[in-house]
Amino acid sequence: MKRTNLLSVFILINIFSLSAQHHRQQYVPDPDTLVQQKLEEWQDLKFGLLMHWGTYSQWGIVESWSICPEDYGWCERKKGEHPDNYFEYVKEYENLKTTFNPVDFDPDRWAKAAKDAGMRYVVFTTKHHDGFCMFDSKYTDYKITDKGCPFHTNPKANIAKEIFSSFRKEGLWTGAYFSKPDWHCDDYWWSYFPPKDRNVNYDPAAYPEKWEKYVRFTHNQILELMTEYGKMDILWLDGGWVRKKDSTQIAGYYENFSKNPGTGFTKTTMVNQDIRMDELVKKVREKQPGLIVVDRAVPGKNQNYLTPENRVPEKALPYPWESCIIAGGGWSWTPGAKYMSPRKLVHLLADIVSKGGNLLLNIAPGPDGQWDDSAYKMLSAMGDWMKINGEAIYETRAVEPYKEGQVCITEKKDGTLYLIYLAEKDETKMPEVIGLSALYPEKGAKATLLGTGKDLNWKRTGNGFEVSIPEKLRNNPPCDYAWVIKIEKR
Ligand code: GLC
Predict the structure, then answer these.
(1) Among 103, 123, 377, 398, which one has the highest count of C-beta atoms within 10 angstroms of its own C-beta?
(2) Residue 186's domain is classified under what CATH number?
């Protein structure tokens, strides 16, 4: 072999082993057996609700980001009297606390709508990056229950508590979104220096006492949420740049930075922001045994599941995962948001579930404390579909080939198979046959169309099979958007 070939083989081998390593590092199972068991149950739930809500909702802007001095579209400052002056803007932004009064807040109504749509858990922004607490933290006055916020006199002032208890009453699991970075806290963005970007604005190694205060503050707030808010199922931690970085990682960042300037990395991105996750997780699990912890985007055992954002992976992933996806507008409320059509939502859920994931659908409450009417409409149509077809969604697992053409496949633990046929927009009549080319049921298996209970004929074709839909049924499908064939062993 010539030298050049040897070299390319060597490079190839390295690329392969690096990508295999990368894949392995992406998910590290949590050794806690209670957590593993809970994750298994969580994977049965399939469909959850995410809500981003805070004082920013009054301006209808991107949550928190406009106070972050980075030059991205989502950080642009367009509201208030002084969008052209960063420091004045931040004052006005933080002043939104004094006008936040969502008097129409009715979490029971949300919980009922979510439940009727087939959602089985909720994740709520108890604190986003801007640091405003939607719960009654005793470690800050930048919070909904502070006397400087008009809503503090409302009987439902402790918003997070009200949301968790309303959803729990409807039988949903509860999760707390919590941002590890806090841009209001003087121990994260120290007023001595101006903030430079999303990161801590001083070097924790140079000011260890200050950083220690920040670590304690963060642990204390999370512990409040995990002790005073009833049974919690998920701790969903955002702001993955707040993490422990060892010297090799930091060296790697520097190298990457010098080769690719302009990637958004800055000096502070690379500093070690060790929030002492292992210690925190140990403390919170003493209060909430088996708690699922999602230290988003931080490889390691404290990221119990992965959270692709606003996208669906190409294939099934070999570990627990959840796509969080915006239903309309942005993560936080924007005026005139257009919501996903029920067809798109049904197809999205089927696609995700056939790949073994969960869908966490984001709906943003408005400044008055209400959801848009179109959000309710979308959920109600979703509920109609789920009432008929939910059994093809819940408690299923991914089965190869996951999807073929218009058909998504799911499987129950007992081997019952579901073919979810995603109908096109103008497809109101069911196809003559629905089948697969490389998978077939056992002889004598029973095929039915969900929502009709009628037995259907099927036959083997090559390596696959097809189910025939009689003409009468074809013209009268049991529901809109997608039709489900159930295949059971007899
Ligand atoms: C993005 C946004 C952040 C939001 C999150 C939800 O990372 O920047 O504000 O909370 O998505 O997944």
Answers:
(1) 123
(2) 3.20.20.80
Nearest to 216 by CA among 172, 252, 185: 185
**Residue-number span of the structural domain to which 315 is assigned:** 6-392
Closest ligand 1 atom, residue 125 Cα: 10
> For 444-479, what is each residue's pLDDT tens digit?
999 999 999 889 999 999 999 999 999 999 999 999
Q: How far is the CA of 376 from the centre of ligand 1 (A)?
A: 23
Report the nearest atom of ligand 1 relative to the CA of 74.
Answer: 8
State the Cα–Cα distance between residues 416 and 387, nearest whole angstrom.
18
Do 15 and 63 share a structural domain? yes
Peptide bond into 401 cis (omega under 30): yes
Q: What is the average pLDDT across 219-231?
A: 98
Q: Identify whether residues 378 and 406 lie together within a single domain.
A: no
Q: Which of 348, 377, 392 is the last residue of a domain?
A: 392
In this structure, the strands spanning 121-127 and 464-468 are unpaired
Q: What is the pTM of this model?
A: 0.93
Return the number of other C-beta atoms located less than 10 Å from residue 205's C-beta.
10
Q: Please tell me the distance between residue 162's alpha carbon and the centre of ligand 1 in angstroms.
A: 23
